[in-house]
Amino acid sequence: MVETPTSSPSNWWRNHHHNRRWTTFFSTQKTLFTALCLGLFLTVFYWQRDFTGGFLVFRFDFPSRQFPKLRPFAFNLTDFGAVGDGVTLNTAAFERAVMKISKLGKKGGGQLNVPPGNWLTAPFNLTSHMTLFLAEGAVILGIDNEKYWPLMPPLPSYGYGREHPGPRYGSLIHGQNLKDVVITGHNGTINGQGQTWWKKYRQKLLNHTRGPLVQIMWSSDILISNITLRDSPFWTLHPYDCKNVTITNLTILAPISEAPNTDGIDPDSCEDMVIEDCYISVGDDGVAIKSGWDQYGIAYGRPSKNILIRNVVVRSKVSAGISIGSEMSGGVSNVTIENLHVWDSRRAVRIKTAPGRGGYVRDIKYQNLTFDNVRVGIVIKTDYNEHPDEHYDPKAVPILEDISYTSIHGEGVRVPVRIQGSEEIFVSNVTFRDMSVGITYVKKHIFQCAFVEGRVIGTVFPAPCENLDLYDERGNLIRRSVSQNVSDIDYSF
Ligand SMILES: *[C@@H]1O[C@H](CO)[C@@H](O)[C@H](O)[C@H]1NC(C)=O
Ligand SMILES: *[C@@H]1O[C@H](CO)[C@@H](O)[C@H](O)[C@H]1NC(C)=O
Ligand SMILES: *[C@@H]1O[C@H](CO)[C@@H](O)[C@H](O)[C@H]1NC(C)=O
Ligand SMILES: *[C@@H]1O[C@H](CO)[C@@H](O)[C@H](O)[C@H]1NC(C)=O
Ligand SMILES: *[C@@H]1O[C@H](CO)[C@@H](O)[C@H](O)[C@H]1NC(C)=O
Ligand SMILES: *[C@@H]1O[C@H](CO)[C@@H](O)[C@H](O)[C@H]1NC(C)=O
Ligand SMILES: *[C@@H]1O[C@H](CO)[C@@H](O)[C@H](O)[C@H]1NC(C)=O
Ligand SMILES: *[C@@H]1O[C@H](CO)[C@@H](O)[C@H](O)[C@H]1NC(C)=O
Ligand SMILES: *[C@@H]1O[C@H](CO)[C@@H](O)[C@H](O)[C@H]1NC(C)=O
Ligand SMILES: *[C@@H]1O[C@H](CO)[C@@H](O)[C@H](O)[C@H]1NC(C)=O
Ligand SMILES: *[C@@H]1O[C@H](CO)[C@@H](O)[C@H](O)[C@H]1NC(C)=O
């Protein structure tokens, strides 16, 4: 399962390789004989494929794959004057295409096909009832000069640009108040060329918060699938206050270090959302579920809820595989995370918050998690004291409750569990069942707890902290904890 993003043994790579080889072959050997041989081969190939399905391991499509027709009207980006040379700026072409499609909503909408090539553009908006389809080898390249990036007001639930007060840069691909939007393809790429942005950020040359790669706000019925997102200036995919969002079969990549804030997916005040079959290797959290920041998030009051994350592989060298928070002031509830594989990461699954946030994190179910070489596996942290401004209310304390961890496995983990409640933010009703995590070295206090109430059912390895009640496999109480509040937290490893 473990693979580096650059050496992934994908079908795509093999297909591409074969295509290239055949193209070269065809253009250099122009004899009738060759053509006949090729014709014969293709006939046999298609015949075999039709009759035996998965007969050939290196299944490739030749000539290059056609665009499927997913809407009543389809357009080619080149129809609008775009040039895919990586140098020509195609913003106007994208805008013309979107304008055209925006008039087709009543007729079922339109599809914009992006052929192979490097399509440089400044940020542009999507429209409702639109499908953006990226061919294999199609790359939408974000221009890395901030002068081309429009500024927008801060998100209402953050009251702040996140890095700087005041306006923030919009996203490369943006949408507001939309319905029925699809971004998909044959694994084409949206590339934010974040390198310039990360460098300017580190050198403190930017006066506004960097823009996400794809940000869809106040929208519903969104599907994003079968593409690659890479090198975002800031968060990669940010659905904000959206409903019914499906994210499936994405590859999300950014350098694993020195690519600040390149979270993979940030569901923010969203409900009814699925994230599945994704591979994420980025410079910050793989997924971070949020719902606004301190007093602004409390006032906005829109939770993230009914979220399912499954069959996801994540690497986050500097942060966590899946996070909830730290901005969670609108509340987060009913989240299921299953069949998750976190490798080579600092933290695997984490809930982070602080006094001032308000809100709640409740009804969170983790199931079948595999940790492979992570420093701290399960984390709940209640002192993540980063605030938008001085005016937050320190008495607004979040509620953390009803959190379960079932079937947790792995190896190479230093600290399998660190649940750090506090006197103000007590962590209630935590359940562990079926856990066995291979640890890197044996030390006491590696299942660390403070101010937490809950239970361990059946056998759990390593031995749980004394804060939790013990039950046997059949659910009979063995020992009730009398020390829920003792602190076993040791940050030295
Ligand atoms: C899609 O492309 C990315 C980047 O080129 C690659 O890492 C990934 O394996 C490809 N995905 C599939 C399913 O072919
Ligand atoms: C799109 O336009 C380009 C350039 O005109 C052309 O090469 C390509 O075949 C077109 N693709 C489709 C699907 O029409
Ligand atoms: C894109 O959408 C935003 C928000 O609706 C709007 O402010 C901006 O003017 C739009 N940009 C263009 C080029 O239409
Ligand atoms: C995932 O995407 C790749 C590349 O586009 C495609 O070959 C594969 O069939 C997709 N898998 C699923 C389950 O949709
Ligand atoms: C940031 O602001 C300073 C002072 O107003 C200005 O000189 C500089 O050009 C600005 N930088 C950017 C990237 O806008
Ligand atoms: C959710 O969105 C999808 C399109 O992505 C649509 O087919 C489906 O009907 C929507 N579901 C609901 C309950 O609205
Ligand atoms: C993803 O791609 C595969 C292969 O092309 C296709 O069968 C599937 O329907 C696509 N899935 C979505 C959700 O777009
Ligand atoms: C919880 O979320 C799931 C989707 O992950 C949904 O099917 C279920 O109805 C939600 N439960 C409640 C009580 O809303
Ligand atoms: C657990 O998750 C892994 C992927 O991390 C998957 O391969 C395995 O089938 C899952 N097990 C069950 C019982 O669902
Ligand atoms: C504790 O959490 C579990 C889910 O993990 C839930 O089923 C149960 O009702 C909760 N117990 C209480 C007393 O709220
Ligand atoms: C543990 O701390 C919580 C929250 O501060 C408090 O409500 C509770 O009474 C304490 N329990 C014990 C046994 O001291």
UniProtKB/TrEMBL annotation:
Transmembrane segments: 31-48
Keyword tags: Glycosidase, Hydrolase, Membrane, Transmembrane, Transmembrane helix
Gene3D superfamilies, alphabetized: Single-stranded right-handed beta-helix, Pectin lyase-like
Pfam families: Glyco_hydro_28 (PF00295)
One GO MF term: hydrolase activity, hydrolyzing O-glycosyl compounds
Family: Belongs to the glycosyl hydrolase 28 family.
Protein name, entry field: Polygalacturonase
Organism: Penstemon smallii
The organism's taxonomic lineage, starting at the top: Eukaryota, Viridiplantae, Streptophyta, Embryophyta, Tracheophyta
